[in-house]
## 1
Amino acid sequence: MISRIIKGTYCCDEATRRLFGAIVTGGQLNDQRRALIDLTIRRLKGSGMWDKLALLYVPAAKDSFSARINWKNPGTTTLTATGSPGFTGLT
């Protein structure tokens, strides 16, 4: 799956594309992360859990911007950092 994304021939789920659009605005994504995110969303949908979720935040991210995005509906209910929280992104 990852090689197909790298070569640009892989088309991901619509929910994944919306999320990527929000992350690209201020975050960072490499091809491996794109594949893992798409796989996660597809599995949530396949199990029936996706439709039961109102919000989904995944703080395991490369940068703090990406960690605050609502995966279920990007662009809405984005988390806001208050104070001066530290963030150590995944590499």
## 2
Amino acid sequence: MRPRGTDQERRDRSWISALLGYGEFLIDTVVAFALIVGGTILLGVVTYDFVRDLGQVPFVTNVLELLSGLLLVFIFTELISTIRVVIARRRVDVEPFLIVGMVAAVRRLIVISAEAENLLGTTGFRDVMLEIGVLAGTVLLLGATVLMLRVTHGGDDEPTNGPTG
């Protein structure tokens, strides 16, 4: 019987670990490029729709649609930034996902706030108000979590290469 952890076993585990690391890097890179392409196309579509609808629909509705689309583009950029940090640091941080959740909740708040005006006096209005309350609570809870993370882990951020790091 061989003792556990022989040199050969360690080499085998090291080789498998390296292979998995390359696979992870490849998948992260492909996902990041897909998000870059998708975010760029989405930005173009959102801008085109805004300009096309000027004068066609009420201005406030057009601006709310623009804001909703731009927040979705921002979610794409946050996800790209998160992947960049994962690749650079070789670890997953929770905070960027919390921020994406906050932006998604705010985006939904904007959309349903615009819809709430049309539902005034109907039975659906109560449901929309409940959803607004839940989303507002979600944003506050996620924001408090981000704040707690920054207070408890303040100062241990490692620099990353790139325009935002």
## 3
Amino acid sequence: MIGSEESSPGHIVQDEGDRLLVGAFPTSSINPAVPERRAEEFVEMYGKGGKTNCQYSPNVLHDRWKKLVFNACLNPICAITGLDDGRLRLADGALDGLVRPAMREIVAAAKAVCGVELAEDVVEETIHVDPLESYLKPSMQQDLEKVRLVDGVFELRCCSTDSFRATSSNSRTYWASH
């Protein structure tokens, strides 16, 4: 997770440190010790530069769903409305009408599809992860503002359908029950 923006064409400002969680996704065809060992080796190599916070995560599936709470909700909502995360939080009805319901859907999908239990406070923690007065624009909003519509639409579709694809390919019919 890297906090950065393109302040002008070709000029990138990275105002947060590089934080990377690495882990192995469960698979039935490989002994789990092999990908876990490889992930730990990668963390060691990547961190040797001393400029990153790279950590091994034993539960990367949980981490992915937790990140989707932000990426599948705040990212597209900010892009569509044109409001950065601070102004979105200040907009009358936006949190209760758009953001919280969308985030609760991702939390429910994580549990229904993968059995991933996210913390009870994950929605509020995600909403308030950045200081209100930072007025940060998620990457999708930045892309749309740069008139990179093709990239923005592609990312919007990918973030939104990533969790949907997981649920629709699962034998349990999650969406039909909601």
